[in-house]
Amino acid sequence: MPSTISLRTSLGLARQTERILPRFDGLLALAAAVIVFAALLASWLTGGFTIDLPWAPSLDLRLAFTLDGLGALYALLASGVGIAVFAYSIRYLPLHLEHMKRPLRDGRSFYALLVLFMVSMIGLATAQDLMVIFVCFDLTAVCSYFLIGF
Predict the structure, then answer these.
(1) Which parts of the chain fold into alpha helices (H)?
(2) H or E segment at 21?
(3) Are 97 and 54 in contact (CB under 8 A)?
(4) pLDDT digits (tens, 9 = 90+) for 73-100
(5) What is the C-alpha separation between 66 and 52, in angstroms, rounded?
(6) Burial class (CB in 10 A: 0-12, 13-18, 19+), 116
(7) What are the residues facing 127 on neighbouring strands?
(8) How large is the angle between the packed helices 107-126 and 25-45, nearest 10 degrees?
(9) 3-state secondary structure of 47
(10) 52 has which bridge partners?
(11) Could you tell me the sign of the dihedral formed by the alpha carbons of 52, 41, 114, 74, in that order?
(12) 6 pLDDT above the threshold of 80
């Protein structure tokens, strides 16, 4: 009996969140962008950081990121522009989706693509390995393709 009640409750909550949560996806993405901007700014002000992890040791590939002066400039620029885009899209996207007669939950893929685009731009700005630069550059290209088609 308790499992039936919990199942019914969870199904009811799932229906409610399907209606309510898409409106907060933009706020969540905006909050993530602000946190990333603040973390990058704090890291840059304290001297930057270096992450160097083995990726494929047999091929001498490593996952290496460094936040230096130039990388910080472009990473802060990418996250700052991301904040502006998220803030604008919170108001614009529901109107666009309504005009195009698309469900409001389609905004989730839009925000996911924007977050991935912003993160890959930051990765591109801080990458120290050519393969990581290539992967981040390709991620920005793929995200751009799908965002333009959105």
Answers:
(1) 2-20, 25-45, 69-99, 107-126, 130-149
(2) none
(3) no
(4) 999 999 999 999 999 988 888 888 888 8
(5) 8
(6) middle
(7) 65
(8) 10
(9) coil
(10) 64
(11) negative
(12) no
